[in-house]
Specification:
CATH topology: Rossmann fold
Helix content: 25-40%
Shape: globular
Strand content: 15-25%
Order of helices and strands: EHEHEEEHEHEH
Radius of gyration: 13 Å
CATH superfamily: Response regulator
Length: 121
């Protein structure tokens, strides 16, 4: 069983809930957030994840800015960040902000699981 810690950030509760359930079923230890700014105090005081799955378009926030802050922070800079978006044209912008990988929405859960396994092995 995989006990890797994953943080998911997406303001769409349907995606957040379904990803949480499916990744939990796959054996990941999942913590889910609707706002990117919520992850910083959690990561620094509660639990450092093995990977962060981050939506680019968050309500009132830009996931690319969150990713840049993660990569600038000494404590979080080495955590892989997988960015997600329905905007396929945002893949380059995701990598430019420091993302380790990019997943286009809609996605197949197998694609997400395979990417997470590759980056946390």
């Amino acid at each position: 069983m995989n006990s890797k810690k994953i943080i998911i950030v997406d303001d769409d509760t349907a995606i957040l809930d379904s990803l949480s359930v499916m990744l939990d079923y796959e054996g990941f230890d999942v913590n889910a957030f609707q706002r990117g700014t919520e992850i910083f105090p959690f990561v620094e005081s509660v639990s450092k994840p093995d990977l962060i799955l981050l939506d680019i378009w968050l309500s009132g926030e830009d996931g690319r800015d969150i990713c840049k802050k993660l990569k600038e922070n000494e404590f979080t800079k080495n955590i892989p960040v997988v960015m997600m978006s329905a905007g396929r044209d945002l893949e380059k912008a995701a990598y430019n902000s420091g993302a380790t990988a990019f997943i286009s929405k809609p996605f197949e859960i197998e694609e997400v699981v395979d990417t997470l396994y590759q980056l946390t092995s």
